[in-house]
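Q: Given only this backbone (854 positions), what sequence would you predict?
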């Protein structure tokens, strides 16, 4: 350190306190990075790497970015999993004596972004805290940009699958956990759930106490779970306040929730049902969220996603949502008027966060004012036209005083910067108006001075100029240098002329610049005061934003219902499920109008509880079973559904096991992944659950797979009792219908004409004994010789079903066949046997069985 320059010593002393972060070190108009930070950042950002004298004649690596455009560069670093520490100049360099004081004012991480351009507009950016306390795992989730903060817990003794599923819902950008309580299984799960894992010491008692004041403990919540939830919340809150270097006013309330307060869907189910992103492309365009998203605000878009990812299991709460949607479907004028006003509402949640953190600009405050004006009009519309919302609207606080303050205080079209003036509206402050008048008159006086000096000197090209270094000056070209009066004082010599100052111009300069500087300072001070007033209304703004977001989602559900012909499902506490003319909401939109074939479905625990669906590939089995699950999710989210009618006994859990894939990261085969998913379903499903299964057992041999599929079906029917649809190519499973009351067969309707096969996409009662795989292979374009050989082989295999033997390569391979003992027993008339004949018959059967073994 002794050989470094004073500035580099200052840099190193700050960097030692933030070893994991890339340090943005403010130098004038740039943020500079040095040493290893410069090497790393220059590569990621693809900017020039230079060098600077670090002291003792040694050069140190350096790169930098302009401070006014740093946001984009920081976002790129954070997207790569980096943390960025911002070290600002804490005093005016022109006023500083010696080295300018610098301090880190903020740490930006993947989970703490608040910049509008760095965040997805319609998705939350969650950061999660996890804490292990006794046998409980506490989990806290927050979105710093919107002010959301929630805490929950799971039992460690029950395993970590619930935590894995909750992380799958949240998709956190960052996880914060404790270092003092290692747990291999927990650590492995967390490492696979976020790009950035931050490990730190447990929270202080004061943080726990503060969080306890913010979180309302639900009645009946176990003490151990409650303490674990608070521990995780305090851990996360401390970390967030350390990164922001201030108390977080935007977290007004902590939501203390239980995982079983919502419909349970594991990570694979959300993925397989394509709730918020498509299965293959991984984007939203072919997801359920995208199809139903007619929201007018970013807040509504985020809430819509949350509702669909966390369907309710409380009948009364779902009914309230349905009532709201129904009113907006029936009252088209109210729906359209509300949408018109909601389009004028900006992202109040994220604006409020920037306000409370002191990062909001004048444009943010102007947007807040316009949003509050729109909110007042929304309130008036509801109070005048709505049955459902009238009472709530009449009590809604639209913060009229704050609206008036913002509208009076901030100009209509403010500049981007808040430290260059032109922020405060005329008439708001007599002092500001006076300073503006002085600055304006001073500029006019200077213009008049220029004209007087031209007349007095006869120099028509004389002009008054200004720059930040020399201030105001009179500029004369070389050709008129001999006409310059003696009282002109030379200020600067140029290649083409001279610059001068006069006592009068100096006096005017002082008046103008003093007024302008004071004007800029006072405008900024007044702006900060207005911003602080807005921050003081944080709780009211959050409540209002939440109301507008909910209203936006109701309007979105109503718009989808009207546009696509959805109906209100009838829900109850039973175990039935009946869909008439149901349609898959996403697939229907991807097809030309009218081409989707609707289908019915009836399930009821203990009666028609398990449907075995057989039939061809490409005929729509997977679409059908997913449709039933997706409609259940929609119904319990409060949405109307694409069907002629739907009746549903609430599902506590929905499971969807669809498709097959390897898990290369953990070395698990396709079949192992499949069995893990099936095991999770069998362990956690209840009689109130809904299960859809697609091709269980296909990842192993035919015999093993059939045995597993058979036994899984029996277990679900006899033990779990859940409503289930099982799509399979194991046609042998159709025999279950005769063995178990409650298991029934379904199949995909097919029309055959000669060699042509038409898939009708219609589900009909009864089983199927064909998969039409060769027909699908022909549709896929397999070479003709391959298809011809496959047809020959299929005929050969089907012929062997009668003999039980297939000759191939001189060897005999046993295949599935009927046992002759069974045939003899089926034909025997046992009532006609004498005791002796019965004994002889038994010996005969034994001999046949022994020959079969040979």
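A: Predicted residues:
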């Amino acid at each position: 350190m002794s050989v470094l320059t004073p500035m580099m010593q200052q840099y190193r002393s700050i960097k030692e306190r933030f070893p994991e972060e890339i340090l943005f070190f403010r130098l004038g108009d740039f943020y500079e990075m040095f040493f290893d930070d410069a090497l790393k950042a220059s590569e990621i950002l693809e900017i020039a790497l230079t060098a600077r004298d670090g002291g003792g004649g040694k050069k140190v690596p350096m790169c930098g970015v302009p401070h006014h455009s740093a946001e984009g560069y920081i976002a790129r670093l954070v997207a790569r999993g980096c943390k960025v520490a911002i070290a600002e100049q804490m005093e005016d360099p022109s006023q500083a004596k010696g080295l300018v004081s610098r301090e880190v004012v903020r740490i930006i991480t993947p989970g703490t972004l608040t910049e509008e351009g760095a965040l997805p507009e319609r998705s939350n950016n969650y950061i999660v805290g996890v804490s292990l306390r006794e046998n409980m795992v506490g989990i806290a989730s927050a979105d710093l940009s919107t002010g959301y903060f929630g805490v929950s817990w799971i039992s460690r003794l029950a395993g970590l699958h619930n935590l894995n599923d909750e992380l799958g819902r949240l998709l956190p950008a960052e996880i914060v956990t404790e270092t003092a309580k290692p747990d291999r299984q927990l650590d492995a799960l967390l490492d696979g759930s976020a790009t950035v894992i931050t490990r730190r010491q447990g929270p202080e008692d004061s943080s726990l106490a503060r969080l306890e004041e913010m979180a309302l403990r639900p009645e009946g919540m176990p003490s151990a779970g409650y303490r674990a939830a608070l521990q995780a919340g305090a851990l996360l809150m401390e970390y967030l306040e350390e990164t922001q270097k201030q108390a977080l006013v935007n977290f007004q309330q902590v939501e203390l929730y239980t995982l079983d307060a919502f419909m349970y869907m594991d990570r694979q189910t959300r993925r397989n049902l394509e709730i918020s992103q498509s299965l293959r492309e991984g984007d939203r365009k072919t997801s359920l969220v995208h199809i139903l998203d007619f929201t007018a605000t970013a807040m509504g878009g985020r809430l819509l996603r949350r509702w669909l990812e966390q369907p309710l299991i409380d009948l009364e709460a779902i009914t309230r949502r349905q009532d709201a949607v129904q009113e907006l479907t029936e009252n088209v004028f109210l729906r359209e008027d509300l949408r018109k006003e909601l389009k004028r509402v900006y992202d109040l949640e994220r604006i409020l966060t920037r306000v409370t953190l002191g990062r909001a600009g004048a444009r943010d405050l102007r947007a807040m004012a316009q949003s509050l004006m729109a909110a007042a009009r929304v309130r008036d519309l509801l109070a005048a036209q709505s049955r459902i919302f009238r009472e709530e609207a009449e009590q809604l606080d639209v913060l009229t005083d704050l609206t008036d303050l913002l509208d009076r205080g901030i100009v209509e079209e403010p500049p981007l910067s808040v430290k260059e003036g032109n922020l405060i509206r005329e008439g708001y402050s007599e002092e500001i108006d006076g300073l503006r008048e002085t600055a304006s008159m001073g500029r006019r006086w200077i213009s008049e001075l220029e004209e007087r000096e031209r007349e007095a000197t006869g120099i028509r090209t004389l002009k008054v100029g200004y720059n930040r270094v020399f201030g105001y000056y009179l500029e004369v070209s070389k050709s008129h240098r001999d006409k310059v009066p003696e009282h002109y004082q030379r200020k600067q010599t140029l290649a083409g002329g001279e610059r001068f100052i006069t006592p009068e111009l100096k006096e005017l300069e002082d008046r103008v610049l003093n007024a302008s500087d004071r004007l800029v300072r006072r405008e900024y001070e007044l702006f900060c005061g207005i911003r602080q007033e807005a921050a003081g209304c944080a709780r009211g703004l959050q409540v209002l934003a939440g109301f507008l977001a909910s209203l936006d989602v109701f309007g979105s559900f109503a718009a989808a219902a009207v546009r696509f012909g959805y109906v209100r499902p009838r829900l109850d506490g039973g175990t039935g499920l009946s869909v008439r003319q149901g349609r898959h909401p996403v697939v229907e939109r991807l097809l030309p109008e009218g081409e989707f074939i609707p289908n019915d479905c009836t399930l009821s625990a203990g009666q028609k509880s398990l449907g075995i669906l057989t039939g061809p590939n490409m005929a729509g089995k997977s679409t059908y079973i997913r449709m039933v699950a997706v409609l259940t999710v929609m119904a319990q989210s409060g949405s109307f559904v694409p069907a002629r009618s739907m009746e549903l006994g609430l599902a506590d859990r929905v499971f969807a096991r669809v498709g097959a894939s390897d898990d290369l990261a953990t070395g698990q085969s396709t079949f192992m992944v499949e069995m893990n998913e099936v095991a999770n379903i069998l362990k956690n499903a209840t009689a109130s659950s809904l299960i859809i299964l697609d091709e269980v057992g296909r990842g192993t041999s035919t015999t093993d797979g059939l045995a597993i599929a058979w036994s899984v079906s029996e277990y679900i029917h006899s033990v779990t009792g859940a409503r289930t649809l099982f799509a399979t190519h194991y046609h042998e499973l159709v025999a279950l219908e005769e063995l178990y009351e409650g298991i029934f067969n379904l199949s995909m309707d097919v029309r055959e004409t000669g060699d042509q096969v038409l898939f009708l996409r219609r589900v009909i009662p009864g089983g199927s004994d064909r998969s039409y795989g060769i027909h699908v292979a022909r549709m896929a374009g397999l070479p003709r010789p391959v298809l011809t050989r496959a047809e020959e082989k299929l005929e050969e295999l089907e012929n062997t079903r009668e003999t039980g033997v297939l000759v191939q390569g001189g060897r005999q391979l046993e295949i599935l066949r009927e046992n002759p003992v069974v045939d003899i027993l089926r034909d025997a008339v046992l009532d006609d046997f004498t005791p002796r004949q019965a004994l002889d018959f038994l010996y005969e059967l034994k001999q046949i069985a022994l020959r079969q073994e040979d």
